[in-house]
Amino acid sequence: MRVTKVDFIKAIGNIIEFQYNFNQAKKIIDENKLNIEHVTIGDQPYNEVIKEGIDYCNELDTLLEAAKESLIDELDESTISLLNKFDRFDGDLAQDYYMSEKYNNLTFIVNRAKKIKPLYTKRRVPLFIKRKYREAILCFFDGRFDACCAMCRSIAEILLKDLCQKKCGGKGNYEEEPLASLINMCGNFKILKETELISAMRIKKTGNESMHSKTSKNEQEALASIEDIQKILRGIEY
After folding, report:
1. What is the homologous superfamily of the domain 108-235 according to CATH?
2. CA angle, corner 230, sides to 224 and 235, nearest 5?
3. Which residues are CB-neighbours of 111 under 8 A, at least 6 positions away?
4. Contact 29, 36 (CB under 8 A)
5. How far is CA 143 from the centre of its chain?
6. Which of 33, 79, 199, 229 fits a 20 to 30 Å CA distance from 25?
């Protein structure tokens, strides 16, 4: 990506204009004790304006990252100083957007939470699995379906590595083994049943697609990955 002086001037101008309008709106909101969710700035809802501001920050962030590979010249001292000191992501701005987004999406979060069945197992599940499982669930609640599928794939991989290490008599180092090989070993050594192997293969496929495909995973696919993880965790014997 080639970055020019014009790119920076445009990006900074967008942020300055946004920040001015945003500060004016905040002042009106505070002075009149208005509810944020009912406020519009121009013809846009408050949360949409905040999202636009985040986009502007991300745009400048992208330019700054790309500029590392370029030589940006013909800048005056004030512009250089501004770019060197620029806070690329305003913490208060990010928090406002996050809280507004969470408020607006609360109904969806609750509805997604209802779709997850509790996971009851006969045996103690290792703590490192519990931590990653919880993270996958939180990603699902939050609507981050690609992240959820990737986390489920991570769970499957570290779980099968641990199982192979325990069930195969400690022979060999399984840390470097890819997930496909681990699934085959779990089948050959009867560590997983047929239904669990199918679940593991589905998790692998969906997880790979979530990380490498241009298209995003949807809620149904993320939920299926969680349910497949649950099937494996219910069936394994430590």
Report:
1. Nucleotidyltransferases  domain 2 (1.20.120.330)
2. 130
3. none
4. yes
5. 9
6. 79
Residue ranges of alpha helices (H) inside 105-178 are 106-115, 127-141, 145-167
Mean pLDDT of all residues belonging to the chain: 83
Q: Which pLDDT band, with edges at 50, 70 and 90, does 205 fall under?
A: very high
Contact 186, 200 (CB under 8 A): yes
pTM for this entry: 0.62
**DSSP classification of residue 125:** P
**Residue 64: partners with Cβ closer than 8 Å, 6 or more residues away:** 83, 86, 88
Mean pLDDT along residues 193-204: 97
Mean pLDDT of 165-172: 74
Residue 144, both tokens = 């981050």
pLDDT at 89: 47
Residue in the structure block whose two tokens are 């496929």: 205
Q: Helices (H) and strands (E) in the chain — how many of each?
A: 10, 2
Please count the other Cβ atoms lying within 10 Å of the Cβ belonging to residue 190. 9
Distance CA 10, CA 6 (A): 6
State pLDDT tens for residues 67-108: 766 666 777 777 777 666 654 445 555 566 566 666 667 788
The domain spans of the chain are 5-104, 108-235
3-class DSSP state for residue 42?
A: coil
